[in-house]
Design a protein that fits this description.
The complex is a heterotrimer of chains A (270), B (313) and C (325). With 270 residues, chain A is mainly α. Chain A is 75% helix and 0% strand. Chain A has one domain (51-269): Orthogonal Bundle (MetI-like fold), CATH 1.10.3720. Chain A has helices spanning 6-28, 60-96, 98-113, 116-127, 131-158, 161-169, 173-209, 221-228, 237-269. Chain B has one domain: P-loop containing nucleotide triphosphate hydrolases (Rossmann fold). In chain B, strands 6-7-8-3-9-10-12-11 form an eight-stranded mixed sheet, with helices on both faces. A four-stranded antiparallel sheet of chain B has the order 2-1-4-5. Chain B is globular, with a radius of gyration of 20 Å. In chain B, 52% of the residues are buried. Chain C is α/β, with parallel strands linked by helices and 325 residues long. Chain C has a domain at 1-33 and 42-90 and 213-260 and 268-325: 3-Layer(aba) Sandwich (Rossmann fold). In chain C, strands 6-7-8-3-9-10-12-11 form an eight-stranded mixed sheet, sandwiched between helices. Chain C has a four-stranded antiparallel sheet with strand order 2-1-4-5. The model of chain C has no long low-confidence stretch (mean pLDDT 90). The chains are: A mainly alpha (270), B alpha/beta (313), C alpha/beta (325). The interface between B and C is large, with 49 and 53 residues.
Chain lengths: 270, 313, 325
Amino acid sequence: MRRLKVVDSLSLTWLGVLFLAAVILPLVIAFDTETMSSAQRLAGPSADYWLGGDNYGRDLLARALAGARVSLGIGFGSVAIAALIGVPLGMLAGYLRGAVDAVISFVVDVVLAFPGLVLALALASFLGASIQNVMIAIIVPMTPVFARLAKAQTMAVSGREYVEASQVIGTPTRSIVWRDVLPNILPPILAYAMVNVGTAILIEGGLSFLGMGVPPDQPSWGSMINQGRVFISEDPRLVAVPSVFMLLTILGLNLLGDRFLSGNDKAGVR
Amino acid sequence: MTDPVFTLENGYVRYGGGHPDAVSGVTVRLHKGEILGLVGESGCGKSTTARAMLGLVPLNEGHLTLHGAPVGPNDKRLRASVQAIFQNPAASFNPKRSLLDSVAEPLRVRGIKDRRRRALEELDRVGVTEAMAGRRPYEVSGGQAQRAAIARATILRPEVLVCDEPVSALDVSIQAQILELLAELRTEQGLAMLFISHDLGVVASLCDRTAVMYAGKVVEQGAAPDIANRPRHPYSVALQDAVPSLDLADDHVPRVRTRAVTDDVDGRTLPGCRFSALCPFATDECATTPPPLDELSPRHEVACHHPFAPLHH
Amino acid sequence: MTLLSIRDLVVEFPTPAGVVRAVDHVSLELGFGERLGVVGESGSGKSVLARTAMGLTRKGPARISGEVVIDGRSILGLSERGRRALWGREVAMVFQDPLSALHPITPIGAQIAEAVRRDPSVKKEQAAKRAVELLEIVGIPQAARRAKSRAHELSGGMRQRVAIAMAVAGRPKLLFADEPTTALDVTVQARILDLFDELCREFGIGIVMVSHDLGVVGRHTDHVAVMYAGRIAERGPVKAVFARPSMRYTSALMAAIPSHRAERQTLPKPIPGSPPNLLAPPPGCRFAPRCAFATDRCGTEQPTLTELSGGHEYACWHPGQEAVR
């Protein structure tokens, strides 16, 4: 059993609480993110509104948690889809090599030649602002990165003696890829995916901030920062609350990703 | 002499990119119940020969035969009849699976039932207990893992076992256990084995015949005791002389100390005998004409223009 | 005169599962210009012993007690700085993997020159010249040209020669060699071992050679210490020990080595079982559970070193040359 360090426990706690509050809690009590109370306009924290109200007098905490749902959903969702497309492609290229590899690697190289954020921006502005389009804008530049990582990992693993041992036994290629290669390349890919969820949340925030992401009527951290921007001199809280949520979440994901990778090295590399 | 079970006929392996042949016209014939030792130093092509015989690297020329019939590198018959064990026992198992799972894998691939019981039986036969069988490869000792590797290789009752440095990663006390196990397999199952090793002692004590490789070619082969005690190729002599003998009464004076210390000469690029650059007996003929592998005495072949005279004890 | 004296050395590594005692009350001595072989299987503590004697084992992860004295100077109490001053001048080390000692980019000649210049009285030009001389001494052909090569351009044997040249550049009195030829081919190994003999003969360097290979130690050292599970099983002049192994582990180990001059196929005799778990070693003789001659006494009472003849000592209750009954 590995002992968890303090930072790991803190990261886990934050992400756990956020998940409970943003995803589980709404199933029990409905968040009121829309009611505009003139008394709460730019009001400080109170017993009713724990983090105070925004410029329309809406509950800032409720909106930040609702935003978390959108941001986490987009982050995990788009990374999952990118990994589900990219990893199999990369494994095919890495295990079969030859022509398959040449085609896949060419496509990967072409997509990766565009700077990720610019590509996302271009796609988002072309497709229009919606959650689905934000995800597409994140998935397209992210998929080839997963493909490339999976290819490199697959190539490293397929040179190992146990893969050769399986070949000699007569194990079919499909089975070798599924049972010998995949489980052994998964830990670094999962760690990388965790870090990428952070990146995806950041891109979503950026796009929403620019008005090209999540539509303004749906709270997301990016759109909240965008709306609060105007009031930054009067009440920096409107920008600070979603920003801090975003910062802690991304930091937590990165730290856990790193930890996951270094913890897995020990057993996997032997 | 019976017909060989499994052979590599005149095999060539080139890795391309202008590299000289890794394996150059090597013929290996494995007979039922006989262990052929293949010795040589790093880079001589002995492992590549093994890998080619397992279909893991393609042959550029030459072919494999099973019971006299040619067989392709991906042929089902090859996979059923020819199995292997490798140098690093722990590394030859998937780290995410238990030894038992991996040993049962050949049965699973062929859709054979009752896998768990048969795998446990096979493991028990090679001395791995049920408690050990449930562990991951890196949770057991090297000796245990190598036993499990032998169980995996023999569970389908193959005719041929290719062993690539199977004991070099093990301590001597454990090494002797594994050698004993392999010798038993030869006798009990009549396995034909190719045993690759850089350790001349291991080969001399286990193998029936020995082939010596240098720079991609077999330079000498014959009965194991003959190669060990009456080698005739200067390279084989140099190799035997270099082993520090534990028998301190053995005041053996080295007969061949290879020439100069240019141990980075690549013999494969030489037009004549590949050992000629290092050989103290090399003549002009050696530098220009590659010597063929000739049968100098019954079942003792040497590829040398100036072999050592046969010694008689 | 004693060059190296190890007295009652204990090295322990606390782990989450318990304390591993890698070296258990070991005492050894070595004179100037003598060669000592330390043999044993993996986990015998031979490497930890050598590394600790050289001052390489860190006090943080390890608990060390006892004494190590090299040429009159106690090693274990030295500060980091004191040790650095010692390494390369008084003692040097050659490892199994020569690349670990060599810088990948700096030409080998410059690296050796740097080692030579640890003696402040040597001038730069002298050091460069000396580096080429050292390369010649270790048998590198065309040394002046080779001095400009980088480590990765050389073969394994050449690299080990360069590592040896670097180790002896500071004219050490004592050289630790940890499995120095294990990664090398036999013909290359033979030359490297000849080189060690030469260094010892001509420069009076004392050598501690750690190896799993009894043949290597038997042929190229004067004294031998056989280790098992952290303890000295047997020690003494190498010829005496190998001619008359007395601790049953030594006998069993020798019987487990295959002979390369076998006239008939004679399989080496395996030692049953496996080395003890150092977290829970057997109470008496560490070898008792694997020994064919063990009695009740072996299981409870730890044998002490007993002298057989001039300096030849063994730790066994039932000494003898046979490995199996």
